[in-house]
Amino acid sequence: MITIIAAIANNNALGKDNDLIWHLPADLKRFKKVTSGHHILMGRNTFESIGKPLPNRTSVIITRNNDYFVDGCLIANSIEDAIELVKEDDHIFLIGGAQIYKQAIEKKLVDKLDITYVHHDFEADVFFPEIDLTQWKEVSREDFKADEKNKYNYSFVSYERI
């Protein structure tokens, strides 16, 4: 199974200046729980915004730069090559960025979307692609109110390809 996991704002904002634009500890905790023990595929900019391989996961960086190397990570030149590298994993996660999400959705490489909706509009320079909901079925939703740790209302929503 290949899953996109992303946190997006009301206006589909993902980030600004190669960084997240909100801090939502509940989402980070969920991300860690869901992706631990699996391969995480990401574009080079996403990796560089994280800054290091994440513990208890194998990072696969997708880049067209043939000379790119990061100790402890796998490197691939395309999403398809990245998937081929880790095909033995029963659950692969695409964690960004916007171009990786867009390509994976357009090429129908993804079985599931795990989206955290942050119920707020943010100024951003990177946006999640529009989802054609005629191709996806919502299979779960959990809604949460802002609290002392999480500044914004948010929802965890999962979709499966129809």
From TrEMBL:
* GO CC terms of this entry: cytosol
State which Enzyme Commission number(s) the record gives.
1.5.1.3
Q: Specify the superkingdom.
A: Bacteria
Q: What class of enzyme is it?
A: oxidoreductase
- Known catalysed reaction(s)? (6S)-5,6,7,8-tetrahydrofolate + NADP(+) = 7,8-dihydrofolate + NADPH + H(+)
Q: Which Pfam families match?
A: DHFR_1
Outline the extent of the DHFR domain. 1-161
GO molecular function (one): kinase activity
Which InterPro entries does the entry mention? DHFR, DHFR-like_dom_sf, DHFR_dom
What processes does the entry annotate via GO biological process terms? dihydrofolate metabolic process; folic acid metabolic process; one-carbon metabolic process; tetrahydrofolate biosynthetic process
Q: Which pathway does the database say it acts in?
A: Cofactor biosynthesis; tetrahydrofolate biosynthesis; 5,6,7,8-tetrahydrofolate from 7,8-dihydrofolate: step 1/1
- SUPFAM superfamilies, per database record: Dihydrofolate reductase-like (SSF53597)
As for what it does, the entry says: Key enzyme in folate metabolism. Catalyzes an essential reaction for de novo glycine and purine synthesis, and for DNA precursor synthesis.
Give the similarity note: Belongs to the dihydrofolate reductase family.
Report what the protein is called: Dihydrofolate reductase
